[in-house]
Amino acid sequence: MADSPFDDAFAGLGGASAQRRAAYDRFRSLGLPSRRQEDWKYTDLAGLDRARLAPAATGPAVSAPVAGLDGPLLVLTNGRVDADASRMGDLPAGLEIVTDGEPASTGADNALAALNAAFAPQAVHVRVADGAAIDRPLQLLYRVTDADACAAHVRVRVALGARAALTLVERFEGDASAYWQNQVLDVAGETGSTLIHALFQAEGPRSVHSGLTRVALAGGARYRRFDLQTGAEIARNEVHVAATEAGAHADIRVAQMARAGQSLDTRSYLDHRVADTTSDQGARAVVDAQGRTAFQGKVHVARDAQRTDAQQQSKAILLDETAEANTKPELEIYADDVVCAHGATVGQLDAAALFYLVQRGLPLAEAKALLIEAFVADLFGDLDDDTLRDAFVAAAQVWFGKEPS
Amino acid sequence: MAATAETREQVDEATGDYKYGFVTEIESDFAPKGLNEDIVRFISEKKGEPQWMLDWRLKAYRAWLKMTEPQWAMLDIPPIDYQDAYYYAAPKQQGDGPKSLDEVDPELLRTYEKLGIPLEEQKVLAGVEGAPKVAVDAVFDSVSVATTFRAELEKAGVIFMSISEAIREYPDLVRKYLGSVVPIRDNFFACLNSAVFSDGTFVYIPEGVRCPMELSTYFRINAENTGQFERTLIVADAGSYVSYLEGCTAPQRDENQLHAAVVELVALDDAEIKYSTVQNWYPGDKDGKGGIYNFVTKRGLCKGKRSKISWTQVETGSAITWKYPSCVLQGDESVGEFYSVAVTNNRQQADTGTKMIHQGRNTRSRIISKGISAGRSNNTYRGLVRVQAGASGVRNFTQCDSLLMGDQCGAHTVPYIESRNPGAQIEHEATTSKISEDQMFYCLQRGLDEEAAVEMVVNGFAKEVMQQLPMEFAVEAQKLLGISLEGSVG
Question: Into which family does the record put it (chain B) (predicted)?
Fold first, then answer.
């Protein structure tokens, strides 16, 4: 096998464990994804192996948790837990957070996950005890600073016991250095559990962000994802949900806002493996000059997964002649008694609505901002937590330069 | 509603034995098996082609050697040995070729008769006052054996002949447009076709002419182990209109047969081409043995302003279908349409759909796709709607619905939507469902038997597409849907 630029970085780890070695070998056999692979049509990682591969050193902590949210806060700076910046005292009963130094698993058939398993300095384990409903959100803040040409690999595992409930808020951010942050999040939801997952991707403007979320849901378990992507130069997110027992349900809500030079790509894979499971996906994209988004939403219904109900809606708005939006709502169905539908639209801001607002005295820029805000906010409407919902709207406002109200 | 054993048997009867599966005994003038430059030269020589055509073929052949088969389709294709097939087979004939129907091998005519193809019947048709006239350029194992109505078409200035003849008689026209829509290197199968195409059809409609009749070609694969490589080129000059019908059946075979056709359409300013297909090739038996491999590249170029190309297809046959009739909407305000019904049963696999490439301003496209899966088959809609940066005012509407009959089949949808213009308005809808118990109950309760009820629901499901078919085809297509699906309801 030809040399990989990653080899030196891996050798630099020194005395890597057998597990890390296996994961690295896995990565080497898979290679970095390329646009020639159908799933990677819209994201180009070609530059990744030339720059951004040395493990990031520990940098100074800067903490900016989601405004107005209290509850425990765990900060990872440049891929490592930053105890000083974190707020981990007084954890609610039933919530346990453990950090260890040895990420498990090789990453299966995912090259970036394999690389993550080889390089991630730590793994964070979040456990919620059976029957525990955690009433305050847990915040995870992933922050990269001073990390030119470096990579931060973060690995998190969330295990929800039977009937457990948790709200997990993740925020990715960084400075203007040209870094790569690569996260793998594994979620296991036991019978009747609920995970509300709010994700803010606000990485630095020259960064590459990649995220893989793998969710396995037992009977009646629910996974609800609210995801706003505004940062990074190149972002690629994958969400895999396996509904493994009857009654499992997943909601995926993802809004991607891209402007000059940004390429944001989200791929979902909703795997309905057994009968009587449901999913609902909603995607929004707002694309300004020279930005690009892609939403590739896939629903897979296994043989015998009867009475699956899988819905998918994707909407994109282009704000400029040089913007690009791509959508690929995919269905792969092997059972006949199912209700699966998808709808997709691509267009521009509604001219009539714009006219209405301008005619009532609103400056054009403000009118546009208002419509965009409504378009994005609509996606987070069924998020019960007011503070979180406001935080999403505020983050969207920041994107188009408005002071958060 | 569970299908009764009796119904299952009826399905087997209806679909297990291919109605049109018989072999016509005609001597063929084969080229030796296999593919190399000599075979390409042999084909070109057999057809008395000019040097430029041979050069074109050789260029394609050399390019093809460096290409690999596309792997992205949701198809399970057994390895194909391209050296284990004949690339040229023509019915034996005396002299220079038949001057009239009387000179056509009666065996051939009988074959068409059995298929219900109106080569003989057309005279009757022509005699009937007010009856629509259908001209047939019959392709029997690669070579045109009869072209009819040419006189009347000539009067209108329409050129309708086999592409071999056209290469000899209208070399400038053919040379100008051949490969202009589907370039030699477009894809593996189109490239192969460019090297070895045996025959096909050429149509030219002159400026301002509305073709006086619907043009029709029947394809039929006959000789064992003969790949079919049809090449069709239709050019509609400014302000003209033509409706073209393509339909085909094939005799039953155990050996898989390769088919890689290329169809190119060019519509100039204000011209309109309507291209309708009923594809009913041998799909293989109920265990997936035999059947045609159908790898087709069909593409239309709306070159002129306000031009229009409309594809309608009813796909019920073939073991493997790989086919994406597409429109490149280059002229401002041009229109592309795609209407498709694809039925798969038993072990059939279909990966079919369309591409609408919007390049011109105010271009519009409409895609209606209905996929019906039964048995152990897999049916995939794969489509692309792309709006290029300069194409403002674009409109697209796509609807692709899947109907599943039975719990052992698969229905898949893979649409790509790529927009680079804020003025474009693109809408896409897709649904997947089965025939509901309510629908069946309603029909049965009104005295219809299960078969009739299914046929009715399916025809209703496919109605939007069937309505687009010309009269001549609509009846055959409805019959085909019925035959393909009788009793498949689960």
Answer: Belongs to the iron-sulfur cluster assembly SufBD family.
Any A CB within 8 A of B413 CB: yes
Domain final residue, candidates A245, A279, A311: A245
Identity of the amino acid at B243: S
| Cross-chain CB nearest to B419 (options A318, A334, A338) | A318
Query: Residue A336 falls within a domain, yes or no?
Result: no
- pTM value is 0.86
Domain range for residue A230? 5-245
pLDDT score of A16 more than 60: yes
Query: Is the Cβ of B415 closer than 8 Å to some Cβ of chain A?
Result: yes
- For chain B, which ranges sit under pLDDT 70? 1-30, 89-150, 217-227, 248-256, 472, 483, 486-490
Helices B37-46 and B188-196: angle between axes, nearest 10 degrees: 50
Q: Which residues of B touch A341 (CB under 8 A)?
A: 429-432
Q: How many domains does chain A have?
A: 2
Q: Tell me, what's the ipTM?
A: 0.88
Does the residue A65 lie in any domain?
yes
The per-residue pLDDT for B148 is: 54
Q: Which residue has the tokens 């229109």?
A: B335
Mutate to test the interface with B, among A303, A308, A333 (most CBs of B within 10 A): A333
Of B419, B426, B430, the CB nearest to A324: B419
Q: Is residue A206 part of a domain?
A: yes
Helix (H) or strand (E) segment spanning residue A265? strand A263-272
Q: In chain B, where are the structural domains located?
A: 21-93+106-323
Q: Which of A193, A215, A245 marks a domain boundary? A: A245
pLDDT digits (tens, 9 = 90+) for A347-378: 999 999 999 999 999 999 999 999 999 999 99
Q: List, in order, residues 6 or more apart from B407 with CB less than 8 Å away.
A: A303, A304, A306, A335, A336, A337, B490
Please check whether residue A274 lies inside any domain of the structure.
no
Count of beta carbons in the 10 Å neighbourhood of residue B48: 10
The dihedrals phi and psi of A255, each to the nearest 5 degrees, come to -115, 130
* B:363-402 residues touching chain A, CB 8 A cutoff: 387, 389, 402
How high is the pLDDT of residue A1?
Answer: 57
